[in-house]
Amino acid sequence: MLFALSLVLPIFGVIALGYAASRSGLMSDEAIDGLDTYVFTFAMPCLLFRNLATTPFPDVLPWGLWASYYGAMLISWAVGSVIALGALRRPSTDAVMIGFGSAQGNTVMLGIPIIVTGFGEKAGFPVFLILAFHGIILFTVVTFLLELTKPRAEHEQVHFLLILKEALKGTAKNPVIIGLALGVVYGQTGLPMPKVANDALHLIGRSAIPCALFVLGGMLTRYAIKRSIGAATLTSVLKLVFMPVLVFLASHYLFDMPPIWAVAATVLAGMPAGVYSSIMAKRYNAAPGAASSAVVLSTALSLITITLMLSYFLPKG
Known about the structure:
Blueprint: H1 2-24, H2 29-54, H3 63-86, H4 92-101, H5 107-119, H6 121-149, H7 160-172, H8 175-189, H9 195-206, H10 208-220, H11 229-254, H12 259-269, H13 275-284, H14 288-313
């Protein structure tokens, strides 16, 4: 437990530093947004591109890894949406958003730092394989569902193909997804990475993790647990407990995969709700209070749940 805490506390310490800098006014919202733009437009795409471009792809596609993670993700999303519709009596658009928060984790800002720090670079590869399709699936599906369920005029028609086209277009413009895709493509060419390019990408990529953690802390000042505590609690329980348990069971008992892959997928699944859920909620006016509350609550609770996961999975002694 103490060893796990020694890994987790510095990471959350950087988050706390970003929170304090923003809350105190030393870093304005504009400065945090600028740093966020740097992280997700340059640093994180460079990190992901370099890792995927220089790491040999497995001879056999990791269907078990993807099925374990994405299967659990979609189940968690569905359960969250059904409970929001039935027990919480939320409208369908809100239910989509609450379910999305129960499935979409802070994989880039928090997942990569914790897994790579705790388990080393070898654990980063399965994470990158998961992330290769993570954004494409999540952002496309949530945009499609929100467009499909948002309130419309009585005679306004729903154009499924147009909605899907717009969802895919928005996903294709995501710099992180572009970095992942280009990394996979370049890696498949078998071409060596030129030293100058490799060193430059490595230099920029090294700044991605600490900057992302700092930005996360700064952005948490914009959210508060003010309302919809029931929905926020539901999201937190599904995201921090239910989804990683599903991934653990599937990766350990249904599919034959390397132990480090199963561990990486399980820990990644246990990341708290990502800030993107709050952004989408505000954009569509779909449970914005629940989404922002879930980001703060699940991030706070994840200090405990992530520590427990690391204590269980890290080698003893």
